[in-house]
Design brief:
The chain is an all-beta fold and about 260 residues long. About 0% of the residues lie in helices and about 25% in strands. The chain is built from one helix and 15 strands. About 20% of the residues are buried.
Amino acid sequence: MSVLVSGVSKKAPEKSLTFGGKNTAGRNNSGRMTARNRGGGFKKLFRFVDFKQTEKLDEKAKVIAIEYDPNRTANIALIEYENGEKSYILAPEGLKEGASIVASEKAAIRTGNRMKIKNIPASTQIYNVEMVPGRGGQMVRSAGAYCILLGIDKDFAQLRMSSGEIRKTSVECFASIGAVSCSDHSNITIGKAGRVRLSGRKPHVRGKAKNPCDHPHGGGEGGTSIGLKYPKTPWGMPALGHKTRKRNKKSALLIVKKRK
């Protein structure tokens, strides 16, 4: 399903950087359904997006086009290196066709450039941030997202995320300068139910509209409340506000201040 956005190219995606994939419809690798109310929708071509850009260090690349990607909220940029090799990267806000970018350990502080965090000045907006050196960007990749580099203390840098969380990451990790494109994505009006179905989401029935045998919230006369101490999932687990993050998660040691 295409979305018409100003500044986005209408060209077909680069064939060598795309592949067809089967719609999993909310099922995991063993075929069990892990997310309900999924299925249908338009067929989508998957794009190979380079979240590392470290294989072409110090090689300048030219932005050929800013393209729409149906598999993510942000736009992607098709870039071409001096040797003719092409690649897709996450497009930052303000990056235009014809611009030149580079990934290096130390580069100019310019939108789209990628470098190690230890060489980025404080108070800079960054995105596509690595959590582990060499693994590729894993944080701050959705539309309009960015985090702010607060400062560097020895081997770690402190980042303030959009949620208000302050966390640490290694200064050897790479990050890109700027903010992810499509900052107005949250303001898009869907307009009709059919467009939701075309995106691969099916109708969702409220628990309180079901029978007691089908959901803990079910039963009662008329529009009654759920009648429980707290909301539950169909399988009895706490829902709506219950914290699901594992207490013994290793990366919890890197969180300085929890999100608001």
